[in-house]
Amino acid sequence: MDTPMEAEYKKLGLRQEMKRLRGALDAGARALASEKIAQRLLDSGLCGPGKCVLSYCSTGSEVETGSLIAALREQGCEVLLPRMEKERALSARIFRSGDTLVRGSYGIEEPSKHAPQLPPQKIDVILLPGLAFDRAGRRLGYGGGYYDRFLPRLREDCTKIGLCFDLQIFDEIPHEPHDAQVDYLVDENRIISCGQDEEEING
């Protein structure tokens, strides 16, 4: 296990490399892969009708979530989106058809401050962006710590899903003991059930 300083140094280097690699993806290829990821998730049953799902508003070269959010609502999910609050905190806000999004921190679209807020304990499924993941479910974020602070507030049985492109998945990424892990990874080719009973779910 690396020391905290060694792990942070390695994370910084990997963040820079992954921003470059993901940003180099052709826009058309990225859009097609995002459609495949969305359909794979919808077909998986992990976000079934009646589930309360916290998604994210994609930005830059992330897996696109616009059509996925609409599809989740159509299949009967209660969709929430994150809003960045003071002191690097996240809140979960209800997002319904016709609601207007505003530009928040870092230029990311988010619900307005008037959108109804739900406590994290109400969330059944959370969809997470990231720069890199490993097959054990470890996630490399952007370094702001928003999700690191939010994830411990979820119920233990909340399903955590990382949405990513195949090139973002590694056998192992730099990590520290406190780093949160996801339960599943969904890319354009497969679903990986993470952890000790790691399993690829293809189709």
TrEMBL record:
ATP binds at K11, L12, G13, L14, R15, R139, L140, G141, Y142, G143, G144, G145, Y146, Y147. Keywords: ATP-binding, Ligase, Magnesium, Metal-binding, Nucleotide-binding. Its EC number is 6.3.3.2. The keyword Methyltransferase does not apply. GO terms for biological process: folic acid-containing compound biosynthetic process; tetrahydrofolate interconversion. Substrate binds at E62. InterPro entries: FTHF_cligase (IPR002698), FTHF_cligase-like_sf (IPR024185), NagB/RpiA_transferase-like (IPR037171). Its cofactor is Mg(2+). The keyword ATP-binding applies. It comes from the Bacteria. It catalyses: (6S)-5-formyl-5,6,7,8-tetrahydrofolate + ATP = (6R)-5,10-methenyltetrahydrofolate + ADP + phosphate. Belongs to the 5-formyltetrahydrofolate cyclo-ligase family. This is 5-formyltetrahydrofolate cyclo-ligase. It comes from Luoshenia tenuis. The lineage of its organism: Bacteria, Bacillati, Bacillota, Clostridia, Christensenellales.
